[in-house]
Amino acid sequence: MPAQTRTVAGPEISFEFFPAKTEKGAESLLQTSRTLAGFGPRFMSVTYGAGGSTRDRTLSTLKDMVRETGVPMAGHLTCVGASKGEVEAVARAYWDAGVKHIVALRGDPPPEANGVYTPHPQGYVGAVDLIEGLRKIAPFEISVAAYPEAHPAALSPEADLAHLKAKLDAGGDRAITQFFFEASTFLRFRDRAARIGITKPIVPGILPIGSVAQAWKFADMCGASVPAWMRDLFDGLDERPQTRALVAATVADRLCQELRAEGVEHFHFYTLNHADTSYALCRLQGRNMQSS
Ligand SMILES: Cc1cc2nc3c(=O)[nH]c(=O)nc-3n(C[C@H](O)[C@H](O)[C@H](O)COP(=O)(O)OP(=O)(O)OC[C@H]3O[C@@H](n4cnc5c(N)ncnc54)[C@H](O)[C@@H]3O)c2cc1C
Q1: 151-167 tens-digit pLDDT
Q2: If we measure between CA atoms, which residue out of 79, 73, 124, 78 comes closest to residue 96?
Q3: Who's near 30: CB < 8 A, 6+ residues apart?
Q4: For ligand 1, is residue 127 a contact (CB within 6 Å)?
Q5: Rounded Cα gap, residues 83 and 105, in angstroms
Q6: Which of the four pLDDT bands, split at 50, 70 and 90, describes residue 96?
Q7: 86 C-alpha vs ligand 1 centroid, how far in Å?
Q8: Where, by residue number, does the polypeptide cross the bilayer (predicted)?
Q9: How many CB atoms lie within 10 A of CB 83?
Q10: Is 23 an active-site residue?
Q11: What is the CATH architecture assignment of 12-284?
């Protein structure tokens, strides 16, 4: 069959990956990104390991994906533990590699800091300062992080939301949320954001469950609540990976459908570097491959 170009339908999508640890993992990740690139995502992003631990691998993964997929890439970048000069060097390397979009983050304090963030003596004070700094380096598109259930270190949900507004007012173009499992969690957050005058897009981050044990651990760490019905549904499924994948796609699709019914038009998928569940989710949202 000759290749045919189809119209891309469905909501906008973006995909998030993390840099692989081995050469074999990097090759498999590149294959995953090539596969998902066929859905014509708005962008694909690559995370920046805690405290900049994956700086070089993040950059090389971004370069590979720019070259191999042609999709606009976004590089995550944190300012924890780094001087302004070090952050600027990474941002310039992104720009020179064709990565014109940054997911700008403060980052987590190191484990020995017991959750207390202290800026580097020559560094950015926090995310707002970082965003203002990046704006001076180059005309990057900038996404920022948002927390529908509030960041675990937030003084209050109100202070957390006001801080999100400050990040967007400082130059963030959109917010991407931490994952959550109930549509109402996102919708309430979106309403509260609108009430304090946030007008920029808030894109829900959707996590299709991979390893169940790991998903509940991540949720615990980042303050995302796991409804009892979901714990029951996934109970024991780590022993049945194929069933788990079917259930994960079904549950994530239901969440997307509920959000779409409320006008959500862009989903950011946490792929966990696997193509299959995100692939299924895109198809379920009516998203076709650009060519076949
Ligand atoms: C979409 C997304 C992508 C991510 N990617 C990465 C990644 O690639 N690498 C990585 O290491 N981590 C990543 N993280 C995690 C992130 O680094 C942590 O959640 C970190 O603790 C906070 O970073 P931030 O940019 O959200 O910080 P901020 O929003 O600046 O601060 C976190 C919270 O602290 C409070 N706060 C901070 N400063 C103020 C202030 N001045 N006034 C009032 N309240 C304040 C607010 O409640 C705020 O929500 C990501 C998170 C999300 C949601």
Answers
A1: 999 999 999 999 999 99
A2: 73
A3: 64, 65, 68
A4: yes
A5: 14
A6: very high
A7: 19
A8: none
A9: 14
A10: no
A11: Alpha-Beta Barrel (3.20)
Among candidate residues 16, 68, 132, 158, the one labeled active-site is 16
Tens digits of per-residue pLDDT, 111-138? 899 889 999 999 999 999 999 999 999 9
> For residue 288, what pLDDT is reported?
83
Please name the residue whose Cα sits nearest to atom 25 of ligand 1.
105
Domain ranges of the chain: 12-284
Listed residue (206, 142, 199) closest to 178, CA to CA: 206
- Distance of alpha carbon 289 from alpha carbon 187, whole angstroms: 29
State whether the beta carbon of 45 lies less than 6 angstroms from ligand 1.
no
Q: Which long-range contacts (CB under 8 A, 24 or more apart) does 243-252 make?
A: 244/209, 244/212, 245/276, 245/277, 245/280, 247/209, 248/208, 248/209, 248/210, 248/277, 249/208, 249/277, 249/280, 249/281, 249/284, 251/181, 251/208, 251/209, 252/206, 252/207, 252/208, 252/209, 252/277, 252/281
Q: What is the pLDDT of residues 200-228, one digit of tens each?
A: 999 999 999 999 999 999 999 999 999 99
Nearest to 11 by CA among 204, 174, 189, 140: 204
Mutate to test the pocket of ligand 1, among 16, 62, 87, 106 (most ligand atoms within 8 A of CB): 106
Q: How far is the CA of 147 from the centre of ligand 1 (A)?
A: 8
Residue 19 Cβ < 6 Å to ligand 1: no
Report residue 15 as tokens.
């995909």
Residue 193 to residue 21: CA distance in whole angstroms: 37
